[in-house]
Amino acid sequence: MPALLLGSLSTLADTSELQREAFNEAFETHGLDWRWERDDYVAMLETNGGQDRVTAYAAARGEAVDAAAIHQTKSALFQQHLAAGAISARPGVVETIAAARDGGFKVGLVTTTSPENVAALTAALAGSVDVAAFDLVVDSSQVEASKPDAAAYLFALERLGENATDCVAVEDNVGGVASATSAGIACVAFPHANTAGHGFEQAAGRVDELDFAELRDLANDLDA
Asked: What single-letter DSSP state applies at residue 89?
């Protein structure tokens, strides 16, 4: 049975600006005079890992900070924002998940974010996206290496009992695409507003809205 693997929280809902806002609030909480403007953050999203971005930013400024503590605060604030605000699924996501399941595809969410962030987003999307019905949800508690390492996708393939060539991944960022393709999985880029300008040369395709028929056809073409 083929599988559709959605690769991050922002393939389900565009959370990028909520994340940036949470970072800036965390900086203030920790007494830092930092502020990441949108253009700064867009550039940072070409690499994965929020804590790593904090570490790199501090090093570039010649400052020593507790990046882990800052990132923990940021995550808590992000979860609060998700709980307090209205957020909706990205175009085509609800329909694509339903069509995939109806078409006999397994459906998985393959992230390297925290289980708490996954839970916060799924709660915010309750009523439109039922992640509890997914065949698999991967988060940072299950794999040691974050994307762009292939570990999360290799773990997903093992748990699902699937071959890479039978799966299609959907990712919103360059590192996610690299993770999927390193695992041998064809990946469709589904960038959001803050990653739309990035290069997705490794992707098998690029879309602005999910459509199951297109993803199914890609899987069939690869299997042919």
From this structure: P
